[in-house]
Design a protein that fits this description.
By secondary structure, the protein is an alpha+beta fold. The protein is built from five helices and 15 strands. The strands form five sheets. The protein has a five-stranded antiparallel sheet with strand order 1-9-8-2-3, with helices on one face. It has a four-stranded antiparallel sheet with strand order 4-7-11-10. 21% of the residues are buried.
Length: 318
């Protein structure tokens, strides 16, 4: 059948099992899975960061999908010109969520509604990383899985209250819109398959901290250096714009071996006791080399082994 346009389904349904006495089908509850917004313009959602359960399964799912066509009118023609397909519009899913706490008279309904409304505001993590984004959502119901999307609208109707004014019943209409489909050629300047983000250098910025904030791995600073043709990462001029490759591009570029790359200085190259970290190695400039070249020491400081970074940001042997 190919790649599903909106939903993917697995399993054989919930019919009553035969030949096993009074065996009944398992009741599956629907839920919205919250996913971490990916960094660097990626279209692959991050790991799970929460979920919002349906107290009662929905009665219906409203799914819409559209396409854009364009007609070029022909002057003097008796009929309209042939339509030209422009592309698909994003899929949209609208579902009602019903919450009721009339038996417990607590604030659980308000808490559930607040979780839904929070899907429309940036998470605290993305605000700290200066890439504000709400969580992505994926609808699940048994073997039915929806598309990765974002919550574009939440409408809440409180219909029952306690004597003190606390809402104990609510009907919520939630609309989720598809994030994206194919995005080949999205970045015309770099030819990247994924969009690249641009960062303007500020005072105190280092490639290590940018890599840690963007990818969670400070050792990926080499990827940023290579993408921007930086031959001396210790000298970043304020106001310079840096292209930050998408997360999917890291494997295709010269990424170093995995190390203990923390945000403070790129960690150590290999993890053997007594070896010099990359951050300390970058401070050793080549005294006898041509301008624009410096040495990055790797391995044990006692062995004196070294590799040379040439102008343009490529490490031989990487």
């Amino acid at each position: 059948m190919g790649i599903p346009v909106a939903f993917s389904a697995a399993g054989s349904g919930g019919g009553t099992a035969r030949g096993r006495g009074d065996a009944r089908p398992k009741l599956e509850h629907a839920y919205l899975e919250l996913r971490t917004p990916p960094p660097g313009g990626s279209l692959t959602p991050g790991g799970p960061c929460g979920r919002i359960d349906f107290q009662f399964n929905p009665r219906e799912l409203k799914l819409s999908k559209g396409a854009v066509w364009k007609r070029s009118p022909a002057k003097g023609a008796k009929s309209a010109g042939p339509p030209e397909y422009q592309g698909p519009q994003p899929s949209k899913l609208t579902v009602e969520m019903f919450f009721d706490a009339s038996d417990t008279q607590d604030n659980s309904v308000v808490e559930s509604v607040e979780k839904l409304l929070a899907c429309c505001v940036p998470t605290s993590e993305t605000r700290q990383q200066q890439r504000s984004s709400p969580p992505w959502v994926v609808f699940h119901w048994g073997g039915l899985t929806g598309f990765p999307g974002y919550v574009s609208k939440v409408q809440v109707n409180y219909t029952l209250f306690t004597s003190s004014g606390v809402p104990v019943r609510a009907v919520c209409r939630v609309t989720a819109e598809e994030i994206s489909g194919e995005t080949k050629g999205q970045n015309p300047t770099s030819g990247a398959l994924q969009a690249r983000r641009v960062h303007r250098v500020q005072a105190g910025d280092t490639l290590a901290h940018l890599a840690w904030r963007e990818y969670g791995d400070a050792t990926a600073w080499r990827v940023i250096a290579e993408a921007n043709g930086i031959d001396d990462p210790m000298r970043l001029s304020d106001g310079r714009e840096l292209l930050l490759p998408a997360l999917e591009e890291l494997d295709g570029l010269h990424r170093p071996s995995a190390g203990n790359g923390g945000p403070d200085g790129l960690g150590r190259e290999h993890g053997t006791h007594g070896q010099m970290g990359v951050a300390g190695a970058l401070g050793t400039l080549a005294g006898a080399g041509s301008p624009g070249r410096f040495r990055a020491l790797t391995g044990s400081a006692a062995s004196g082994s070294q590799k040379e970074l040439t102008a343009g940001g490529r490490w031989p042997g990487r």
